[in-house]
Design goal:
D-tyrosyl-trna(Tyr) Deacylase, Chain: A; 6-stranded mixed sheet; 41% strand
Length: 153
């Protein structure tokens, strides 16, 4: 079974705007669209942050993806996006029943952000529950879907 979801993109810059105001902006780093599902808890948020910060998607001296966000001193823009939990297996309209309820989703989004900030990463965010516009320059392009496995039990 899987846990929280992050769709990550390596970027040269990214920003999120809410009601005409820039809520968050980064330079070189990772844009992470983050979603909690119904059975997630803060342990999954912490595990996902750990994986994301160590994920080697930046080039080394030979141009191979061998460096992490921490290695390159990059920034992180975290944007809540419940639509990542959509069930798209049938029909032509997505179902969002796998997504966490709004209160739980916001709590887990905030736990994710707090955990990233505790690791001395420059973190900017979108606004949970707001209608947002996201702009980015995808570097590569490089995009990955991250999830961590829940412990068996």
């Amino acid at each position: 079974m899987f846990s929280m979801i992050a769709l990550i993109q390596r970027v040269t810059q990214a920003s999120v705007t809410v009601e005409g105001n820039v809520a968050g902006h980064i330079g070189r780093g990772i844009l992470a669209l983050v979603c909690a599902e119904r059975t997630d808890d803060e342990g999954q948020a912490e595990a996902l942050v750990t994986k994301l910060l160590a994920y080697r998607i930046f080039p080394d001296e030979q141009g191979r993806m061998n460096r992490s966000l921490l290695d390159v001193g990059g920034e992180l823009l975290v944007v809540p996006q419940f639509t990542l939990a959509a069930d798209t297996m049938s029909g032509t309209r997505p179902s969002f029943s796998p997504a966490a309820e709004p209160d739980a989703g916001e709590r887990l989004f905030n736990a994710f952000v707090r955990c990233a900030r505790e690791r001395q990463v420059g973190v900017a965010t979108g606004v949970f529950g707001a209608y947002m516009q996201v702009q980015l320059t995808n570097d590569g392009p490089v995009t990955f879907w991250l999830q961590t496995r829940r412990p068996a039990g």
